[in-house]
Amino acid sequence: MKNKALIVVIFLSVALLGILTYLNYFNKKIYFQKFDEYSKIEVFSKYEEEKIKVCYGNKLKCTPIDYNVKGKVNTQKIGVYTITYEAEKNGIVSIRKKRVEVVDKTAPELIVEGDFNNVCPNGKVNNVTYNSTDNYDGNLTDKIEYKLNGDRIIYKVTDSSGNITTKEYDVTIKDEEKPTLILNDDSTLYIALNTKYVEPGYVAIDNCDGNITEKVKVDGTVNTQKAGTYEIKYSVEDDFGNETIVKRTVKVFAKNNYTPGVVSNKTIYLTFDDGPGKYTARLLDILKKYDVKATFFVTGYDNRYNDLLTREYAEGHTVGLHSYSHNYGLIYTSTEAYMEDLLRIQEKVKGYTGYESKIIRFPGGSSNTISRRYRMGIMSTLASKVEELGFRYFDWTIMSGDAGNTKDPNKIYQNVTGSLKENGINVVLMHDIKEYTVNSVERIIEYGLANGYTFAPLTMESPVVHQRINN
Ligand SMILES: [Zn+2]
């Protein structure tokens, strides 16, 4: 019996020992209670240190102890941070680590405003504005994508954390705007016979398709071996079928092979600009009386004296071309504008004389500086252009002064006769629209004839009189 009791005692002791061992009764430890090893928080939110309990003891009795926390969570920056909790008691050290992940779960803002009743076939919306900002990435406008899906258009933006915002709209596909087709250089070009025509090029831009220059079709050719007017047609069509057509005119001019004559001594070339006018008929009478031939550089805008063009030519004078409009602000803006005006006065003179004049005087002369106001360098361009096209321009060597303050016929007479050179070219600038000028002519002719001078009209073969070009 004693043995039985002993066995029971031993058995119970072993069991008790087992239970106590299980409860760590003999092996005291540090316990972390309610401890999460991982947590997640939204960026820019406030991170609060977790309140945990740490105790020392066993499962029956555990006494709270202090602990240290190491590590920081930067809530301004996405990432994974590690916080270390450390406790120590009676030489026992226990360390636990916690991972805190800072994440961005906030989708970007997306604002789209536009007219979706006019959407290009390729999905481009004209007059659309959009922008996107993200709480973490900032401005994401550059990252906005759009896609046309049937009759819906979807705008989409994704932030760096993969958060997506979309906006969808019903659309009507329509393109009512034609492409813009712009020709390089002027729309009317003037070139000399037997020179090479080089296409100056063009640019085509469409509201929907962007740059479509490559789709431009060019029709027409220029035969530079034959004088005449040629037309080149440029056409371009956008994806919706809107077509734009523009034309360029190329005028090929026969070049006259003139040889400038030698300077003949004691020759006077009287030239009269800006007419015909009120006093021109009287001037023609005077010239006729002395059988003196002169040169008229005529204008075209005043139609009251058109018959005098016919008379000037019929009486052996040279009818030169001054300008149709005599409007500096118009003719000196481009080669095209100048040539258009020049050909207009040439046409008018031809209509009244039957003669195609190619003798020119630039308004203000080739040395004028007023043209700088309208186009820098235009006189240099025009001077070589008109010569290239077979025209010939003349300036002057003697100013009568009638374009300035001189209104006295005696003073005009003195200015002219006092400047005459026996061994040089005498091209006299006068204006037949001024009464005092016409009143001085008779005395000038009488002086010239009395002193052995000859009066002559300018021709294609006359000696060159060009001033220095200043623009
Ligand atoms: Zn003039």
Give structural notes.
This protein has 471 residues and is of the alpha/beta class. It folds into 4 domains: 28-103, Immunoglobulins (Immunoglobulin-like, Sandwich), CATH 2.60.40; 109-170, Immunoglobulin-like (Sandwich), CATH 2.60.40; 180-253, Immunoglobulin-like (Sandwich), CATH 2.60.40; 267-455, TIM Barrel, CATH 3.20.20. Helices cover 22% and strands 31% of the residues. The chain contains 8 helices and 28 strands. The protein has helices at residues 2-22, 280-290, 306-314, 328-331, 335-353, 378-388, 409-419, 435-450; strands at 29-33, 38-42, 53-57, 62-64, 68-70, 79-89, 92-103, 109-113, 129-134, 138-139, 145-149, 152-158, 164-170, 180-183, 188-192, 202-206, 210-211, 217-219, 228-237, 243-253, 267-273, 295-299, 318-323, 359-360, 392-393, 398-399, 426-431, 454-455. Strands 21, 22, 23, 26, 27 and 28 form a 6-stranded parallel beta sheet that branches. Strand 26 (398-399), helix 7 (409-419) and strand 27 form a beta-alpha-beta unit. Helix 2 (280-290) runs parallel beside helix 8 (435-450) and helix 7 (409-419) packs parallel to helix 8. It is rod-shaped and about 180 Å long. The N and C termini lie far apart (141 Å). The model has no long low-confidence stretch (mean pLDDT 93). Bound molecules: zinc ion (ZN). Zinc ion (ZN) binds at residues 273-274, 322, 326, 363. The site of zinc ion has 5 residues, from loops.
